[in-house]
Design brief:
This protein is α+β, with helices and mostly antiparallel strands. The protein folds into two domains: 38 residues, YefM-like fold, CATH 3.40.1620; 34 residues, no CATH class. 40% of the residues lie in helices and 17% in strands. It has a three-stranded mixed β-sheet with strand order 1-2-3.
Length: 100
C-alpha cells in the first residue's frame, strides 16, 4: 500500500480556499487542519479509488493501438460481463425525455 501525502494547514488557510483543499483531498492528499499549531481535524477521501480505466481512456487506447499496429484489440470473453456490471453499479437510471 502506498503512503498518502499529508499537508498541514491552518483553519484560516482552509477557510480561504476550501475548493482547493477539497481538490487536494480528491487527489488523495490527507489534510490536517490545525489551530494554534495543534491538529483539530483531518480531511481525507472516504471514496476508494476506482480500479481500472474510464471507458473513454479504453477507447482512446484501442484507437492508438489500431493506428500503431494496424488492428484493433479484441475484447476477451468477460468484456460484456464487465460492461454489464458497470451499468448495474450505477445508482441513477436513465430516463429518456418524453416525446412531444
Amino acid at each position: 500500500m502506498e503512503a498518502m501525502a499529508t499537508v498541514h494547514m491552518s483553519e484560516a488557510e482552509v477557510a480561504r480556499d476550501l475548493h482547493a483543499v477539497l481538490a487536494k483531498v480528491q487527489q488523495g492528499v490527507e489534510v490536517v487542519i490545525e489551530q494554534d499549531h495543534r491538529p483539530i481535524a483531518v480531511l481525507q477521501s472516504s471514496v476508494p479509488a476506482r480500479p481500472g480505466r474510464k471507458l473513454s481512456e479504453c477507447i482512446a487506447l484501442a484507437k492508438a493501438y489500431e493506428a500503431k499496429l494496424g488492428y484493433a484489440p479484441i475484447p476477451d470473453e468477460d468484456f460484456a460481463k464487465d460492461v454489464q456490471a458497470g451499468i448495474d453499479s450505477r445508482s441513477d437510471s436513465f430516463e429518456p425525455p418524453a416525446g412531444d
